[in-house]
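Bit of a strange request maybe. I'm writing a small parser for structure token strings and I need a real example to test against, not something I typed by hand. Could someone generate the tokens for this chain?
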Amino acid sequence: MIREVGLKRLKSFDDSDSMKLAKVNLLTGKNGRGKSTVLQSLLLLSQSFDSEKGIDHLNLNGRLVNLGTFDDVLRRDSSGTFEINLKTDDELDCDIHCEFERNEHDSRTASLRELEVDGNSKMETVTSSELLMTEDGGMVLAEDGAPLLLEQYDKTVGTTSDVMGLRQLLDVVFISADREGGVNSVRSSGWQRQMGVGIHGEYVMNMLESASQEQKDEVNMWLRKVLEGGSVRTETNPANDEILMYIDPAGTENGFKPSNVGFGYSYILSILVAMVMAKNGTKVMVENPEAHLHPSAQAKLVRTIVQIAKAKNMQVFIESHSDHVLHGLQLAVMNKTMEANDLSVLFFDFEENTPNKTDICQLTIKPNGHIVCPPGGFFDQAEQDLSSLIGL
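Reply from user aminoacidic:
Good idea to test on real output. This should exercise your parser:
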């Protein structure tokens, strides 16, 4: 499990304290305050393992996120480098400090400048020499007539793929807020199992079609619990190289094309299918699970996420603006589905009188699910509106 993450000079982060993480993590707060940046920092490391088999070069654009160039992710009032620091629950290689600098040859990646693991640098100094030349091409000689050499010192890093703490990010599922809904069919060819459901849920039909009957039954079980009924099935049409999906809110075997059913079904299917079919120990990151869902379904979905994660030893990161998502997590603590220390709630805002500088409030959760001394702006809009309506 990733126990802490700390970011420096990355987007709106300046020099933040480490964020304490748990098995289930809720990232909430005002828009544009850095919630997504936390997820993106982990996704950058993960997708760099995908493409580079290590983090010697941080791939800013890949399977999970596309963030542009080095200048796009470096804090605007900073120059030089940014940092991503992790602490994990591994016995070795558990305290990891990564510092990245501009790659002069490729602006769409960042080069690893420093890597410290458990307080020890993993960087090695490499010395190279070349002849010192005059402007007209002649060699510069020492007093004894020997040619002078110009020595250069560069830092390089050995393999980073064997750092245990970083290997926590090998298996990551990311479900974006920008999910596809109402899609009736997809191509059956060209998909591979490692592509999963896709960050937009674009491959959910491929994934479901490849599932075992037991996995399909489990998906339908959770679907019925969250939406109080419903079923989903897929079928292949080899003649047209397509997979079709049918959803029925009444739970029959026939079903309707997704375009004729509420988008809530399509939106949660990518989450359910991804979690049911993921490996044990996977890191699952979901943006706005509440999208297109009735309040009761939002709360039930969150409790379902917690149950699946607990059974499969997953670590979950949820970015949400929904009080129903928050309350669902609080009830999971109150009902002992998870312990209070298994939940981390992080509230994001800007520092007072310092625009564009992220400030994070780590909230305390009591065993009864209550939150101690929540800050202003923390899910208090309904209370403010009701006070106005009744004239208080």
